[in-house]
C-alpha cells in the first residue's frame, strides 16, 4: 500500500478545517464556510484596488462622479452592523463597459458604460447596493475557499487514480472538472449573484431609494446585452430570473423603504 504524500495530508487537514469556518450571511441568514481569515482577504482586496486605481483611467469630478459618491455613501451607511469595519470607497472608471465590481474591504468601482443603462439615482442605488452586498456577504472569501477545496479534492482524485492508464485518468479528471464546474462552481456563483440582488435591494431601500426600480434594471440590462448562455451554464442567473426574484422580494424591500430614515425624515 502506498503512503500518502505529506502535502496531500496537509490538504486533507485544510479541507477538514474548512468545514468549521462558518459565516452567517447578513440579511439572508444563510450559513456558508470561509477558509481564509477575512482580514487576509480584505488586505488582498485593498491591494488589488490600489493597483486598479493606478492603472485605470479615473473620472474624479462631474455629475455622475458626484452621484456615485452621494449614493455610495448612503448605501454604506445603510449597511450598519453588517460590516462595521469596512473601508468604503467608490471610484468611477472611464471605460465604456456596462459593468461594476466589488473587492473585499469595501472597494467598489463603476464603469462609465453603466450610465448607458441607468437613468436615475434610484437605479444607481440598486447597482451599488448589489456590489456592496457582495462585500458584506463575503462572497470573495467563499469563492476562494471553494476553489481551494475543489483543488484539494482534485489532488486526491489524481492520487487515487495514479495507477490507471493515461486515457482513463484523463477521462476521470475531465469528468471531475466538468462536474465541479457545472455542479458546484457555476450554481455557487449564481447563488452569490441572486443573493447580492436581494441584499442590495434591501440596502437601497434602507438608504431611502425606491426599490421598485430594481427589477427594471435587469429588464434594461437584457435589452442592452441579452444573455444567450443557458442559465445552468452561466455564472449569473438569467435577466428574467433576476427580474422575477426582485419582484418576489419587493414587499420586504418596500417595508424597508417606508421605514427608512430618509423617507420618514428621521435623519
Helix vs. strand class? mainly alpha
The N- to C-terminal Cα distance equals 71 Å
Specify Rg, calculated over alpha carbons. Answer: 21 Å
- Chain oligomer state: single chain
Helical content stands at: 55-70%
Instruction: List the domain count as a whole number.
Output: 1
- The portion of residues forming beta strands comes to 5-15%
Main sheet: strand order: 3-5-4
The description of the largest β-sheet is: 3 strands, mixed
Explained architecture:
The chain is mainly alpha-helical and 267 residues long. The chain is built from 10 helices and 5 strands. The protein has helices spanning 6-18, 38-55, 63-79, 121-136, 139-160, 166-206, 214-224, 239-248, 250-259, 261-264; strands at residues 22-24, 31-33, 89-93, 100-103, 107-111. Strand 4 and strand 5 form a beta hairpin.
List the helices and strands and how they pair.
Layout: H1 6-18, E1 22-24, E2 31-33, H2 38-55, H3 63-79, E3 89-93, E4 100-103, E5 107-111, H4 121-136, H5 139-160, H6 166-206, H7 214-224, H8 239-248, H9 250-259, H10 261-264
Parallel strand pairs: 3-5
Antiparallel strand pairs: 1-2, 4-5
Helix pairs in contact: 1-5, 3-4, 4-6, 5-6, 6-9, 7-8
Amino acid at each position: 500500500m502506498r503512503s500518502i504524500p505529506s502535502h496531500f495530508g496537509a490538504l486533507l487537514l485544510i479541507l477538514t478545517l474548512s468545514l468549521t469556518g462558518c459565516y452567517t450571511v447578513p440579511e439572508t441568514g444563510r450559513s456558508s464556510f470561509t477558509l481564509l481569515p477575512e482580514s487576509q482577504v480584505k488586505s488582498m482586496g485593498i491591494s488589488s484596488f490600489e493597483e486598479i486605481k493606478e492603472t485605470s483611467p479615473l473620472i474624479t469630478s462631474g455629475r455622475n462622479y458626484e452621484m456615485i459618491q452621494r449614493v455610495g455613501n448612503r448605501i454604506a451607511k445603510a449597511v450598519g452592523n453588517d460590516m462595521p469595519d469596512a473601508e468604503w470607497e467608490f471610484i468611477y472608471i472611464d471605460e465604456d463597459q456596462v459593468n461594476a465590481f466589488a473587492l473585499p474591504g469595501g472597494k467598489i468601482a463603476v464603469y462609465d458604460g453603466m450610465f448607458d443603462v441607468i437613468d436615475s439615482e434610484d437605479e444607481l442605488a440598486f447597482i451599488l447596493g448589489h456590489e456592496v452586498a457582495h462585500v458584506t456577504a463575503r462572497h470573495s472569501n467563499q469563492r476562494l475557499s471553494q476553489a481551494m477545496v475543489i483543488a484539494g479534492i482534485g489532488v486526491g482524485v489524481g492520487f487515487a487514480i495514479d495507477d490507471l492508464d493515461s486515457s482513463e485518468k484523463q477521462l476521470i479528471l475531465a469528468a471531475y472538472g466538468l462536474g465541479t464546474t457545472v455542479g458546484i462552481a457555476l450554481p455557487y456563483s449564481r447563488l452569490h449573484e441572486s443573493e447580492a440582488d436581494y441584499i442590495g435591494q434591501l440596502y437601497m431601500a434602507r438608504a431611502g431609494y425606491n426599490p421598485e426600480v430594481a427589477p427594471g434594471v435587469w429588464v434594461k440590462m437584457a435589452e442592452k446585452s441579452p444573455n444567450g448562455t443557458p442559465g445552468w451554464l452561466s455564472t449569473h442567473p438569467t435577466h428574467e430570473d433576476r427580474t422575477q426574484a426582485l419582484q418576489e422580494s419587493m414587499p420586504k424591500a418596500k417595508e424597508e423603504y417606508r421605514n427608512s430614515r430618509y423617507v420618514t425624515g428621521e435623519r
